[in-house]
Write a structure and sequence with these properties.
26 strands, mainly beta, Neuraminidase, four-stranded antiparallel sheet
Length: about 350
């Protein structure tokens, strides 16, 4: 199986804010190029690429200007020479894509489908899972739901799952079932078999990143000030990470000590814990960089993105997380000029950018 890595980032940018703040900036060794923007593209939600350099980008208007339950999303295929095709349309909320061996696997919640790639047009659509969550729009729109997928060397797709969870999920191939009450990680084979829950007890990470040793990491969203801050976590098979009820103690004295220690340890001994936390924020996309196109200092790192904050490079050691923020994060604290996603963002006026050294 061959997968092409690209640092293709969706940038949330309001044109008025761009005019006020000037061009998007990056660290000195990097450059940012806009490759698509309104009106060429609307509400992009997730990107992936093929080995020949084509970029697949999903548009998610159903969570912006259109009703959240109507299948109105589509996927565009952008070729290296600049022309594009409509790969697939009339999809549900597209939160995950992965290109493997001439096929595009698409998680458009609640369905998980696979398309044969016929020169930039999706054909022979087949459903691997009919529903990962039967009511993803509870609360108003598609958020906190099962999201992006990554293929690991062990031959599994690993799926990020928000805390709306997994319900009524059954493979249409071998009919294995999975249920996850809350957030975590799900996995399955690309042929739709061996569906199972991998880890549990997280909140709302939209992506997973995988290093060269198949170690899995997430960058999770905060619970808005209750103590579960944005956090990088090493996910292990069978791991339980405590959210929402067991990550901090309920006893008043123990809770005071937990807060005084700034959550350095889990509230209960049976929960696993994060590597590091980074305060408030809205983490979105993440990817483990295991290729050799970038300079050596970036190899083996985890690249993460967070709404209104940064694109970051973290150590992918399970024992350490070191965040290196892009300079664009230091010049903006509002959603107006934000590195929004390798996987998900939230504005119809954001362009799509290419970052490279």
């Amino acid at each position: 199986m061959r997968i092409q890595f690209t640092i293709c980032v969706l940038i949330l940018t309001a044109s008025a804010a761009c005019a006020a703040n000037g061009p998007l900036k990056s660290n000195p060794d990097w450059k940012v190029e806009i490759i698509r923007q309104v009106p060429e593209i609307h509400s992009p939600s997730v990107v992936t690429c093929a080995p020949d350099g084509r970029i697949f980008v999903a548009e998610d208007p159903m969570d912006m200007a259109l009703p959240s339950k109507d299948p109105a999303d589509r996927i565009l295929c952008i070729f290296p020479d600049g022309h594009q095709t409509v790969f697939a349309e009339k999809l549900h909320a597209v939160y995950g894509m992965q290109y493997v061996d001439g096929k595009l696997y698409v998680h458009h919640v609640p369905q998980f489908s696979v398309f044969v790639d016929d020169h930039g047009v999706g054909k022979d659509r087949a459903e691997l899972i009919e529903t990962t969550n039967p009511d993803p729009t509870q609360g108003g729109f598609n958020d906190h739901i099962p999201a992006n997928i990554r293929l690991a060397m062990d031959g599994y797709f690993y799926m990020a799952v928000g805390d709306k969870g997994i319900f009524q999920c059954e493979s249409k191939v071998d009919h294995r079932k999975a249920e996850l009450r809350g957030g975590g990680v799900l996995r399955m084979r690309p042929d739709g078999t061996d569906l199972e829950v991998y880890s549990t007890g997280t909140r709302n990470h939209l992506d997973v990143s995988i290093n060269a040793e198949d170690e899995i990491f997430t960058y999770d969203n905060t619970d808005d000030g209750q103590g579960w801050w944005t956090r990088v976590t090493h996910m292990v098979d069978g791991g339980f990470y405590g959210y929402p009820y067991d990550y901090r103690p309920t006893d008043a004295d123990l809770l005071a000590k937990y807060r005084a220690d700034k959550g350095a340890h889990p509230g209960y001994p049976y929960t696993l814990w994060r590597i590091e936390e980074f305060g408030g924020g809205s983490p979105t996309g993440a990817v483990g960089y295991n290729e050799d196109a970038l300079p050596e200092e970036y190899r083996g790192n985890l690249f993460t993105a967070s709404g209104a904050r940064e694109i970051s490079s973290d150590s992918s050691s399970p024992a350490k997380a070191r965040r290196i923020e892009s300079s664009s994060a230091k010049r903006s604290s509002s959603p107006a000029a934000t590195a929004a996603n390798f996987g998900r963002s939230a504005s119809p006026s954001r362009p799509m950018a290419w970052a490279s050294t």
